UniProtKB/TrEMBL annotation:
InterPro entries: ClpP/crotonase-like_dom_sf, Enoyl-CoA_hydra/iso. PANTHER family: ENOYL-COA HYDRATASE, IP11341P-RELATED. It comes from the Bacteria. Pfam families: ECH_1. GO terms for molecular function: catalytic activity. Belongs to the enoyl-CoA hydratase/isomerase family. This is Enoyl-CoA hydratase.
């Protein structure tokens, strides 16, 4: 079977699956480029409101292909990063559905998503220290932003692994989904359902504003950042239609 990124656009969601079972979904240069292209196609498809990234069971992603990694120069490393950086930069909301081990670059792929859901067998394994390898792809920044400095240091400096349960406790994962891989993906679809139902431009502008306000230190600056996109949404036909429908429901009670 040929290694691939299986891409499925259905009911407002792009489901992107790293499908390379023999290597436990390790990211070769080709797969990384293919993942980046799949993210771009999802962004360009106006029927898609959210992206789910997962790995073919039993793994999520075993990291970067070690041969490609060992031979890489600076440009080569950026090619290794291309897939998960595309997820990190995606203009659409992203969910990582992690059912198995996420190792090295696979950990970065999980970190790159807006939200992580985990199955019972999920594990987040840095492995950089074990290989004598400095972290890359923004791992130190992403992990500190999501986990805080202490837990991020435990992973980057001490090689600590997060299990599914400890990932939820630490806030790295939103919730643990019991059951098989299909149940995990369905939970990700269920999480995405309100995003799918919302006007796409509101979804896109909300994610843009989340990025803009994440580094702000003052509430007032966030109010200012939100003002223009909120006014634009108030003037859109979708808001008027939904407001009228809500008023009709309330008056009908």
């Amino acid at each position: 079977m040929t290694d691939r990124i299986h891409s499925e656009h259905d009911q407002g969601v792009a489901l992107l699956t790293v499908d390379a079972p023999k290597s436990r979904n390790a990211l070769t240069l080709d797969l990384s480029a293919e993942l980046a292209a799949a993210v771009a196609r999802a962004e360009a498809d106006e029927s898609v409101h959210a992206v789910i990234v997962t790995g073919a069971p039993p793994a999520f992603c075993a990291g970067a292909d070690l041969t490609a990694l060992g031979e890489a120069d600076a440009e080569g490393l950026r090619s290794v990063y291309a897939g998960f950086l595309a997820v990190a930069g995606c203009s659409l909301p992203t969910i990582a559905a992690v059912g198995g081990a996420a190792v090295g670059a696979g950990l970065n792929l999980a970190l790159a998503a807006d939200v992580r859901l985990v199955g019972p067998h999920a594990k987040f394994i840095p492995r950089f220290l074990e290989l004598g390898l400095h972290p890359g792809g923004g791992m130190t920044w992403m992990s500190q932003r999501i986990l805080g400095p202490q837990q991020a240091s435990a992973m980057a400096l001490f090689g600590e692994t997060l299990t599914a349960e400890s990932a939820v406790r630490s806030g790295f994962a939103l919730r643990l989904i019991e059951g098989d891989h299909e149940a995990l993906v369905q939970a990700a679809r269920d999480l995405a359902a309100p995003t799918v139902a919302a006007p796409r431009e509101v979804v896109l502008s909300t994610k843009r504003t989340m990025r803009q306000t994440s580094g702000l230190s003052e509430h007032a600056a966030a109010v200012d950042a939100e003002l223009t996109p909120q006014l634009e949404s108030l003037a859109a036909p979708a808001f008027a239609e939904r407001l009228a429908a809500m008023k009709a429901r309330i008056s009908g009670r």
